[in-house]
């Protein structure tokens, strides 16, 4: 069976991302609907997101989950 959609794959769902639905952040392509906070599901933009490894966060949840956790590890 042929593979359709030879474009870039979404960093979240791994399906093909077409130009009209593409958001690129950190050299990774995402569908607009997949580009949301992993904690609260708020839709993100390139101006209000943060990323830890491959996990996306809004700024609030990045601060409370990633930065706070890293501060505890260092302490």
From TrEMBL:
InterPro entries: Znf_LIM. It comes from Elysia crispata. Residues 8-68 form the LIM zinc-binding domain. It holds the Pfam family LIM. It comes from the Eukaryota. The keyword Magnesium does not apply. One of its GO terms (molecular function) is metal ion binding. This is LIM zinc-binding domain-containing protein. Transmembrane segments: none annotated. Keywords: LIM domain, Metal-binding, Repeat, Zinc.
